[in-house]
Amino acid sequence: MIAISGVTKTFQRRGGGTHLAIDSIDLQVAEGEFVSILGPSGCGKSTLLYIVGGFVPPSRGSITVSGRPVTGPGPDRGPVFQEFALFPWKTVLGNVAYGLREAGMRKREAERQAEALIARVGLKGYESFYPKELSGGMKQRVAIARTLAYNPAILLMDEPFGALDAHTRVRLQNELLELWERDRKTVLFVTHAVDEAVFLSDRVVVMSRQPGRIKAIVDIDLPRPRHRDELLLQSRYQHLVIELERMIEDPPEEIRP
Ligand SMILES: Nc1ncnc2c1ncn2[C@@H]1O[C@H](COP(=O)(O)OP(=O)(O)OP(=O)(O)O)[C@@H](O)[C@H]1O
What we know:
Number of domains: 2
Distance between the termini: 40 Å
Bound molecules: adenosine-5'-triphosphate
Structural class: alpha/beta
Number of strands: 10
Oligomer: single chain
Largest sheet: 6 strands, mixed
Radius of gyration: 19 Å
Strand content: 15-25%
Shape: globular
């Protein structure tokens, strides 16, 4: 469904010079697949996601989604990025219904659909709250509901749970898996947390740092549906976590002996 071929991104440095952020990325993601991109800070994970989203053009290479070249953002790719904050002046209901109204849906129908989505992300009863009245985890759920409202075939998620406390993070991971198991949307999920990548994904793409290149692609051959408590005890899960941790902990290439 997503085909990334030879994608390279070079940024202009302020004050002159260039910075090679990602180099020659080739990756194919099948319909309904959950793929995580894992790597150290600054390796270009977000850049790759923004390029797939059509928000940033690649310097070289190409992306196609369902065979069509990506030339800009589109309703087939739903971003859940931290930078896309909620509208502070709109309620939870208003935030989730916004895209549906923009797409021309009548107010009552947009609100009915938004209410159903709010319930799906576990926020029933919070429809009339404003973002400032919500916790970080609740805001993130609203952001997910807002994106789901477009019904995109692909979800692009950039460390959606990165800023949350450990407990909320685990809860939202479970909720995301439940949603995914029901809808089987294609998900490209950026994270630097190994356990999160293993728990959620079908495959984990490990990136090296500076410039970001694909170092390895690891199949997460753990059965689904996955239950965290059971998974943590499985030796296969532990093995995968250790294997991936070793891969991302490698020293940067330039200081390798
Ligand atoms: N608009 C830009 N202009 C110049 N350099 C940029 C720009 N965006 C990103 N970079 C650089 O590209 C590299 C990759 O950045 P990116 O945000 O994609 O990394 P990341 O792996 O997502 O990092 P993190 O995990 O810390 O969010 C970094 O060195 C960053 O400084």
